[in-house]
Amino acid sequence: MAAERRAEDAAWAALTRELDLWAEAGRAADLWWRDDDAAAVVPALEQLLDLSAHSGVPLALAVIPGLMSADLGACLGGRDAVAVLQHGWRHVNHAHGGEGAWELGDHRPLEQVAKDLTSGYRRLGDTFGARFLPVLAPPWNRIAASVTRGLPDLGFIGLSTFGARERPEPIPGLIQVNAHCDPVKWKQGRRFAGTARALDELIGHLAARRRAAADPDEPTGLVTHHIALDPAAWAFVAELLRRSKAHPAARWLSARDVFRR
Fold first, then answer.
1. In the predicted model, what is the mean pLDDT of residues 116-128?
2. Domain-by-domain residue ranges, the chain?
């Protein structure tokens, strides 16, 4: 237990050192927060919204439009720091075994995929109005190149997956800003990955940006899944928000800032 605590303390100290380097360079370490799989008003969603409000950190909530409950719009009423992104259509895997999970792959006719995305786009716009940003966060962070190419024609201005982006615009008119830190270990019981591992992802992207080994202008993203967070993961996210907010070099951006909307 003592060794685990020392490892956690070392990881938080490493984050502070990285942010100190940004401060010494006179630069702001831009961050943003995306949460996926929103569909129903459940206690975990309410906990998420309260954490955003209490910490003062803006939240981009990726909503599954085809599964969205009727009361979700009212739940977000008055939450000015929460923007809504589109999380696919129904979060259904259309891939075959061994390919990983894909809703927005090339396993179906492109016209059907576009129809689903358009249906979701309209439902979110009708429900959330100006709170909805036309940004697509694909389920499982996977999207076929053929689908990506058609996003501007469907009205999307942004795309968000996982990992350092290759370029700011994968195609003209579409801004890509990804997430880079996921505190959940998905393949081993869907549990907290641990402070050291989660911060290693976050610090790794921050350091790569600072050294220009990754796009220095891509904000570093935290992605959570409120329905999958165990108590240890909730505690980690709250501590990350608290510590980073207290550091002068860290700057949490809203989704509107990130996607220039």
1. 97
2. 2-258
Q: What are the C-alpha distances in Å from 188 to residues 1, 40, 193, 198, 227?
A: 21, 25, 9, 15, 16
Alpha helices in 25-109 (DSSP H): 43-55, 72-75
Distance between terminal CA atoms of the chain? 46
Residue 180 in contact with residue 31, Cβ under 8 Å?
Answer: no
CATH match for 2-258 among 4.10.91.10, 3.40.440.10, 3.20.20.370, 3.90.1150.10: 3.20.20.370
Backbone angles phi, psi at 226, to 5 degrees: -55, -30
In the chain, the percentage of residues whose pLDDT exceeds 70 is: 100
Could you tell me the sign of the dihedral formed by the alpha carbons of 113, 118, 119, 121, in that order? Answer: positive
Distance CA 110, CA 112 (A): 5
The answer to whether residues 63 and 37 touch, using CB atoms and an 8 Å cutoff, is: no
DSSP H/E element including 220: strand 220-224
> Which residues make Cβ contacts (< 8 Å) with residue 169, sequence separation at least 6?
175, 176
What is the phi/psi pair of residue 64, to 5°?
A: -85, 100
The C-alpha R_g of the chain, in whole angstroms, comes to: 18
pLDDT digits (tens, 9 = 90+) for 65-91: 999 999 999 999 999 999 999 999 998
Closest among 218, 106, 120 to 160, alpha carbons compared: 218
For strand 220-224 and strand 191-192, is the pairing parallel, antiparallel, or unpaired? unpaired
